[in-house]
Amino acid sequence: MNTRESSTSAPQPELPLEETPLSVYDLTVAYHRKPVIWDVSFKIPPGKLVGIVGPNGAGKSTLIKAIMELIPKASGRVQIFGKPYQKNRQRVGYVPQRESVDWDFPVDALDVVTMGLYKEIGWCLPVRKKHRDLAMDALERVGIADYARRQISQLSGGQQQRTFLARALVQNADLYLMDEPFAAVDAATEKAIVQILQEMKEAGKTALVIHHDLQTVPEYFDYVILLNMRVIDHGLTADVFTPENLQKTYGGRLTLLEEATETMRRREQSL
Amino acid sequence: MSGLEQWNWYLDGWIIVAGILCAVSSALLGNFLVLRKMSMLGDAITHAILPGLAAAFFISDSRSSIPMFAGAVLAGILTALFTEWIRSFGKVDEGAAMGVVFTSLFALGLVMIVQAADHVDLDPGCVLYGAIELTPLDTILISGWEIPRVVVVLSIVLLINLLFVIFFLKELKLSSFDPALATTTGFNATLIHYALMTLVAVTAVASFETVGNILVVAMFVVPPAAAYMLTDRLVRMIVLSVILAIIAAVLGHISAITVPRWFGYQSTSTAGMMAVAAGLLFVVAALFAPRHGIVVIFVRRQILAWKILAEDIIALMYRIEERDAQQKPDAAYLREILFSSPLPTNLTLRYLTRHDQITDSDGMYELTKTGRDRARQLVRSHRLWEHYLVEHAGMSAENIHKQAEQLEHFTDRQLREKLNEDTIDTDQDPHGRPIPPENKTN
């Protein structure tokens, strides 16, 4: 039924650019001259939860990092609410992969959440009680206020992920980019994250989430980007999350089974 | 007898002050080198300032400080840049990149220094190992006070480093922990990185006259590494590293005077002894740190192993009683079933006897009332767990014993009640043995 080729035109009616949280035009990123993502173009509508799915090495993290200019683009353009990233940086919140930081670092959960407010506090000025209270509220919201004063390596994987989420919350951004927030978390954390995402959506915020568990995609996301070096398809989940598209994204492999094995391997590693 | 009778508050005092200033300025920055896992880059920078120093000697033909400072700091920053540059080619990892940069620069510096030594009043030994003992001899007059030049320079550096760490604590913390977040929220992590590296180079240059070019890295890395063993909060770590640096400096100078005398030698290099003292402090911290100390972890593990063995013994005795109330096991019999070694088993049996859990009648053991109550709870936990594992984890009856055996030691009354509620109402475990009640009154 759905045989649209990957296209740059979203099926929605055109929105003014300054209301479009994220538009990406012909983005190519190369690592040591080898392209990782190639000619990626898409727009995402406001107030939606957007999932990015694709096999390992498809360039999902690279895409997010390139959007935030953490890695250089080979070519292409990115606009956040109609402006280049640097101009609208404060409207973007980032939740990195859990493995990307050193959890033995000598800080507690509250410290990590407070880091989301540093921008607001500004250079050289100290963290004050007001900021700690805000951070505490965010920890309360993700349900781990009791662990605020724990050194972060003493938190479980799920609690660490929630700490990151709380940090994103205090950033009070309009567009959130999240790199696998559901990776290797317990069921309770998964539920908590989904609820927070829903609350964000109700507040009119947009979240772009790298996701691995194909089973839950239709349940969690309104909008999906299928990525494998190129954008295979993007659009409303109901329209584009089809077996044909998944086949194209994951190649001829037995996708669900492989995904399940992959998830198991990840969980084991995280134990 | 000890060498301390020659102690001179003016000379030794200034040497210690110089040592403390150098150790503390280095330790302040060193915390962030250690936390960023960049101690090696600190090492590289401190070595690579050598050609900068040498070039400055050549050009200015003197030990005048300003050009020397500039040349050396520049060389240090270039090291950080080169390392990043070589790494960006790919293929070469950071360690190898630094190895390439700093050994080449250091060797170049060494060659130049040896050459320069013929023309300028310069001793390669001083550059490499420092000459902290000469500190009080070279003084300048500041508002009527004769203060050693090195002390003045190091005080300024310490002040700069202190202000840097205090004012940019937040930024340093963020960019060390999560450089991506720092950059995306407008705190340029690269900028902070190079600011830190510049100060590392400045500190290394200022320190080379006291502790020398090679040992300064010990001052950067060792006190913060030891402090990291002792705490898991950043501010505490910084404060501790400063305290340890001060102790290392004082201890270093005193032992440089005293220790060699014990063996009939002249006093030795203070800088060397400062590094040794710092190393010893690290060893002590690594062994006895409250949470991460090797000895502490070992002792904690032993205590747990003993507790488990004690519980295994009484649970086994309960099971023996259950089968045959008349049988009284001896130590050999218990060991055979538990696969435990003689010494810990005998010690644990003695411990249990003393704590009224079992009685010892000529080597035959029997549970007391207290012991039996405790054992019953363990066996109850074990059998409830077996039920739970079969029902909720889908495990087969053959595989559950081992896991239940571990879980029983960490199950309190509250958890047992929850287990009891979560499993089907029965008084038999999956192997058909009775689940004893929580309390028995007889």
Describe this entry's structure for a reader.
The complex is a heterodimer of chains A (271) and B (442). Chain A is of the alpha/beta class and 271 residues long. Chain A has ten helices and ten strands. The N and C termini of chain A lie far apart (42 Å). By secondary structure, chain B is mostly helical. In chain B, strand 3 and strand 4 form a beta hairpin. Chain B starts with 10 loop residues before the first helix and ends in a 20-residue tail after the last helix. At the A-B interface, helix 3 of A face helix 7, helix 8 and helix 11 of B.
Summarize the structure.
By secondary structure, chain A is of the alpha/beta class. Chain A has helices at residues 60-67, 109-114, 118-121, 129-141, 157-171, 187-202, 217-220, 237-240, 243-250, 255-270; strands at 22-31, 34-44, 49-53, 75-80, 83-84, 92-95, 175-178, 206-210, 223-228, 230-236. Chain A has a domain at 17-99 and 176-270: 3-Layer(aba) Sandwich (Rossmann fold), CATH 3.40.50.300.
List keywords for this structure.
heterodimer; A: 271 residues; Rossmann fold; four-stranded antiparallel β-sheet; 22% strand; globular; B: 442 residues; ABC transporter involved in vitamin B12 uptake, BtuC; two-stranded antiparallel ribbon; two-stranded antiparallel sheet; 4 strands; 4% strand; elongated
